[in-house]
Amino acid sequence: MAGPTVHRRARGALALLAAVVVASRCLDLGFIVPGKASSRRDLVTGGIAGALMAAVGAPQQANAYELPPLPYAYDALEPSIDKATMEFHHDKHHLTYVTNINKALEGKDQPPLVELQKTAIKTGPAFRNSGGGAYNHNFFWLEMAPKGKGGSPSAKLAKAIDEAFGSMDDFKAKFAAAGAPGARFGSGWVWLVVGKDNKLAITSTPNQDNPLMEGVEGTPGIPILGCDVWEHAYYLKYQFRRPDYIKAWWDVVNWNQVSAWYEDALGGKAPTADSSSAAAALVGSRAQPEAKGKPAFGFKFNFEAQFGS
Questions:
Q1: Residues near 279 by beta carbon (within 8 Å), at least 6 away in sequence
Q2: 222-228 and 188-194 as β-strands: parallel, antiparallel, unpaired?
Q3: Mean per-residue pLDDT, 36-64
Q4: Do 53 and 60 form a contact (C-beta atoms < 8 A)?
């Protein structure tokens, strides 16, 4: 009786090994979005390995939140956001939030990150600051794309913006004003949210709070766009010039993603913004061949490309 089981597990192990080797080799060859090769290889191959181990019945460790890979290269958002800022913002600041929320929940059930937001203020500082920070940054990376790749607001979203704020230019001006140092003193975020009435509103929150949290300062709602106005998001390039950063940030907004989140929000669904979303974007976003005749390669494990091929 044990023979077929052993053979199936052996075949599963071979499939696991082959997939991890292929993924690692593809990253080495630059077929997937470039960045720090070793860290991206670990993130992607580790995720594939975990999925395949689960498929063949291997024992799994308790779930923990993960630092998602960026769905583009560190320098892909230049000149709006510089490479050095992206490196320490993602690899240091975001990682710290993920590490600390995992510590706070060690040995406990870890619900989807979005579900943690509702009661985060009431639950305590670790959930509010680290849980909020992990969710907010997952959201932030996904709502951006290299200049020229993020598309435009859908017709439905554009109409809603015009109805709520007068025009796109007026919306951007009001959004920037809400994120300016005089309005959001110190660290925080400025958001575009869908309220309970399905109307759009601009709000801002301190520190790592977000509009999904019960008891949040400002207007609660489902966020579909958010700009990080902590100094670590912009200081290397812009120093004290936060308004200049917000102005440049519009060039890298991923309106395709924002429009999709708007549709979901109208149905009462908040962005999950979890690590699987970012991993899907990373695998789906492969580098263009550098020269004619150079092979291009991409592979999909039910992943969906966000920024084309």
A1: 43, 44, 47, 68, 69, 303
A2: antiparallel
A3: 46
A4: yes
